[in-house]
Design goal:
The chain contains six helices and nine strands; from the N terminus they run H-E-H-E-E-E-H-E-H-E-H-E-H-E-E. With 204 residues, the protein is α/β, with parallel strands linked by helices. Strand 3 and strand 4 form a beta hairpin. The structure holds S-adenosyl-L-homocysteine and magnesium ion (MG).
């Protein structure tokens, strides 16, 4: 049973509770194989679900984010939150919020933030992953770079989760959906589950 040590609705973020539960169960099944990694930590919502599963299985979650926000989080865009503005840096800064969420959820020994651009970290990464969750930048270049750089690190039998997959263009942007199609067409990943805009695939 999923029980979280924190009031998850109070954490800022873009994850539906049903999607969070699906992530938690996916991570519970995968975490015994090795570490999990998410791209796109924001204020820690998905990290609580994934991290809780990792904690229960004695695994680790890496969370990669430059914490300066995606395009749509910038001032003037639809998903801008002025509470997250760092006036000294004159930029977004979600890292303090992420850290506080992880502290409140008692996950500081389990969740390791990596503060940097996913492309830069991905080029240097070498550890096989039991689960990869792609929820970072949604531009075409960002979404495809995340898939191309990171998905080869998913170990055989490991899971790939992708957020914001909208088959109908009325519901949202195309790149995560196109990445999902690419993963299925690759023959490397097979569909496992779909919950709202979350897709979970397994590497054969
Ligand atoms: N998973 C989060 C939501 C992530 S929002 C939740 O559950 O609420 C997307 C995040 O991706 C933002 O915090 C943004 O800073 C980050 N991001 C966007 N492009 C990035 C890149 N190229 N490298 C690292 N992080 C990036
Ligand atoms: Mg998302």
């Amino acid at each position: 049973m999923l029980s979280l040590p924190i009031e998850i609705d109070a954490v800022k973020g873009f994850l539906d509770p049903d999607e969070g539960a699906a992530l938690y169960h996916a991570a519970r099944s995968a975490a015994p194989l090795g570490p999990c990694l998410e791209i796109g930590g924001y204020c820690g919502k998905s990290a609580v679900y994934l991290g809780r599963a990792c904690q229960e299985k004695g695994s680790t979650l890496f969370s990669v984010d430059h914490h300066r926000g995606s395009e749509e989080n910038q001032p003037g865009w639809g998903y801008h939150d002025p509470d997250l503005w760092d006036h000294k840096a004159d930029a977004m800064d979600t890292l303090p919020f992420f850290r506080e969420t992880i502290r409140q959820a008692a996950l500081e020994e389990t969740v390791i933030p990596i503060v940097g651009r996913s492309e830069q970290v991905g080029r240097l990464w070498a550890t096989p992953l039991a689960l990869l969750f792609i929820d970072g930048g949604h531009t075409h270049d960002a979404a495809f770079a995340d898939y191309d750089l990171w998905s080869p690190h998913v170990m055989p039998g490991g899971l790939l989760a992708i957020h914001d997959v909208f088959p109908d263009p009325k519901d949202g942007g195309r790149p995560p959906y196109e990445v999902y199609l690419k993963a299925v067409a690759s023959g490397v990943f097979e569909d496992l589950a779909a919950v709202k805009s979350l897709r979970i695939l397994r590497r054969g």
